[in-house]
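Lecture 7 notes: from sequence to structure.

We start with a single chain of 265 residues. Read the sequence below before looking at the structure.
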Amino acid sequence: MRPGVPDQPSDDGTPLEARERLRVTEILTAAAGRDPERVPEALCRACAGLLPVTGASVSIAGGPSVRATWCASDRTAARLAEAQYTLGDGPCQSALDDAVAVLATDLTQGPDARRWPVFAGEAVELGVRAVFSLPLGVGRTTIGTLDLYRDRPGGLSASDLRIALWTRDAVTFALMNLQPGHDAGDRPAEEGVAPWMEASEADHSEVYRAVGMVMVQLDLDPEQALDRMRARAFAESRTVSEVAHDIVLRRFAFGNSGSPRRTSG
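Now the structure, written as C-alpha cells:
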C-alpha cells in the first residue's frame, strides 16, 4: 500500500495491505532462492527496491561489540555500515543495544545530528541524509540489523514503515534459516561453504583475534581493547576491520603506553 491510499479491498476482494505483504514476500523469496553465493547481495538490493530509500545493508552481530557486514546494496551502504561499526555509535548501534527500530530522519541538523554528532558528520560526507535501522532477531534477542539509508532527509510513511518491518522479518528468517550451499560438484560441506559465509566468519574471527591480542598487550578487558582499536581506526580514517587485519598480521602492536608501534614484520 502506498502513502495516502486507504486499506480497502481490491477488485478481487483482497485487502490492499494483504496484497502488499504478498508482493513483499514474493520479491524477497525470489531473492533468497538464488545461488547461495548471490543471496546476500540479492536480498539487500531487493530491500532497497521495495522502499523509497537509496540503499540497504545487513550487519550480523557477533557479540555485544563485534559485527560483520553480511551484505550491502552499494558502496555507500557498505561504507556507512563500517563507519557505525568503527565508531561504535549511530542508529545501527542504538538499534542493537535497545532492540528497537531507530529512525534518523535528518542527520544534517536537529535531534538526530545532535544524538550522533560524529557519525552524522561522517554520514553526511558520504552523501547520506537519513538512516533507518531495524533490529533483526526474535523478541529482545538481536542477531544484527537491517540498515536503510536515503540521500535526502525525511521519514518513512506509515505504510512504508510497515513494509520495512515485513522486510526485516523476512531478512531475519533468511539469516536464521539459510544454509551454505553446495556447488554443482556436490563437494563435502566443509568445502562447499558459500563465499559470503566464509567472508563473514573471517571478518568476525579476525576482529576477535585482534581484540585478544590487544588485551594481552595492554592488559585490558575486551571492550577497552576494542575502544583502542576504534580510536586508531578513527585517527587514521580507516575501519576497525582494516586495523584488526594489521594487528593479526603483526604489522604493528600497542606498547605499554597504549600507543601503537610498528613491528619489523
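The beta strands are 55-61, 67-72, 102-104, 130-138, 141-150, 252-254, 260-262. Keep this in mind for problem set 3.
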